[in-house]
Amino acid sequence: MSDPSKPYGGAAPSPLPRQALEALSGTGLAGLVERARWLAALDPMLRRSLPATLADQCRLANVDENKLVFLVSSPVWKAKLRLHADALLDAAAAAGLEARSLVVKVAPPEPVFPTESGQPKPLSEAVRDALRATAHSVSDPGLKAQLLRLASSGQGETDGA
Question: Which of 52, 100, 143, 148 is most buried, most CB within 10 Å of its CB?
Fold first, then answer.
């Protein structure tokens, strides 16, 4: 997810190849995968009934008997989504579901990790000094050697940070 302002918005996962589903059929996981695909297809249909800013902050987690279960990224969005419960339940009815209630749970989105830039950031001299001091304070010779090796790695590339 490249846009942190839209933690749950985005494209649905790509469908599994038919061969992969056939391979799963003997394991008992095919039903689980099919349900996940059904939920992934149903999610954007239901979120279309919401304002765009709200739709980007929530996702369908489950349809449990007569309940729609949605996840939101913070308590603020939980309160806002509950105000749109009727619109979601109407959209669910239009999709053929018999949902009568909405359950909203707060679940922070997956963290977005920066992409690797190729070159690691060089260690500052302060970090190198701390590694050397730590190396001289430990009794394990293997750890001491590793800390000293780390402290001396890329020494000519310090940035002074």
Answer: 148
Query: Which phi and psi angles does 100 have, rounded to 5°?
Result: -120, -10
50, 53, 117, 123: which is closest to 88 by C-alpha? 50
Q: How far apart are CA 156 and CA 122, in angstroms?
A: 9
Q: How far apart are CA 86 and CA 81, in angstroms?
A: 10
Reduced to 3 states (helix: H, G, I; strand: E, B; else coil), residue 29 is coil
| CA Rg value for the chain | 25
The predicted-structure confidence for 70-116, as pLDDT tens digits, reads as follows 999 999 999 999 999 999 999 999 999 999 999 999 998 777 777 76
Q: Distance (Å, rounded) from C-alpha 58 to C-alpha 82? A: 11
